[in-house]
TrEMBL record:
Gene3D superfamilies: Metal-dependent hydrolases, Urease, subunit C, domain 1. It comes from the Bacteria. The keyword Endoplasmic reticulum does not apply. Residues 87-446 form the Amidohydrolase-related domain. Keywords: Signal. Residues 1-29 form the signal peptide. It comes from Algoriphagus taiwanensis. CDD domains: Met_dep_hydrolase_A. The keyword Signal applies. This is Amidohydrolase family protein.
Amino acid sequence: MKPKISSSRKITVAYLCAILWSFCFPAWSQEPARTVFQGVRVFDGSTGTLSPAQNVLIENNTILQVSREWTQEMKTAPTKIDGKGKTLIPGLIDVHLHLVFGSLSMVEMLSPGLNQEGIMNKAGKGAEEMLMRGFTSVRDVGGPIFPLKNAIDQGKILGPRVWPSGAIISQTAGHGDFRTPDERSRKFFGTPSRAELFGATFIADGKPEVLTAVRENLRFGASQIKLMAGGGTSSAYDPIDVTQYTLEEMQAAVEAAEDWGTYVTVHAYTDRAVQKAIQAGVRCVEHGQMVSEETLQLMAEKGIWLSLQNLMEDSPNMDPARREKRKPVLEGQKKVWAKAKELGVKLAWGTDFLFEPELNREQNAYILKLQEWFSPAEILKMITHDNAQLLALSGNRSPYRGELGVVKTGALADLILVDGNPLEDLSLLAQPEEKFLVIMKDGKVVKNRLK
């Protein structure tokens, strides 16, 4: 009579067999996923010209070959996309946006019925639409982003790669103090504000609280830290000219971020706010439209990034008080782009749409506003290669491994096939639905109009 084998022992035997099989027949025996773009002109991200017709082979999520030759590996690739002389460019990058705040109106943000499910539905739809506009990577510089980012990375939602900052860190009465008039200070009355409970902001005063806020964001996976260093236009309590956080508080944030191998970026418009932030050791400034030539020169000398926007002049849905606060910012932005370029400041571009979801459809059109100061080649390089360089500042805290913003061997395969030459006609970038024939993110085709 044969002895009976218990079910638990059967499972153990099966598990051991699986391990033995993996040693005998390793994963490399499986055919890698390969796609080739045939006969495309390449904007590689680092030069201002298009190549002659080339072939670009992708293996899994990486560019394996860029060659004028039709190699054996290309011949055997199961997926071939005939580019017919059209233009292959890196995926677009927006380094200053808020996927959640940009998907909700202020009325929705303040609604008593707002919940996590509602946030995910709105922001998830916005993330998918953004990817379909060709934005394959974004830097989210403040807000309750982690659930959405995780859903994108797990393939549950279509969307761009996300470099998250997590909750905005603000002093009391700072630009990230989103409390309504009836909400009292957590420190004195013991109740966190609604915005804090949703993960939108940390109101942190003094070195210990700033350190805790920074470390809490890093714990959840922040790739960089966003600190409010000056007044803003979309908040109720702080005039545009005020400077926020003491030098000691900002230095504490910088030290905590650097201990994790990453950096602090600050919201700041004025000379005083920006210069104090630089003294504290920050490596990037968001906005800066009101700074002087002296401050821009300091940024150029120290290699500080200026993450700049070209804000809209007006909006019918904008609160009158916010419209009034924005006037000096709009006046300054007419000068700062040209002067920063002249002085050699490291420039990056983003949109910074807030609480007006309908504006997101204009994301690509805002690229064209840069033509006042830059050539099409300079603009295309900024929104691909240069923006990717800023993303890389996160170092080991970057959530994705590999080089972006370029089309070259070894880079990640985030690519767009454009119907036409954007170096001759930049307006093609503002027509993603018609002119972006193929969009690829992480080696996977998410849109293909050539089928």
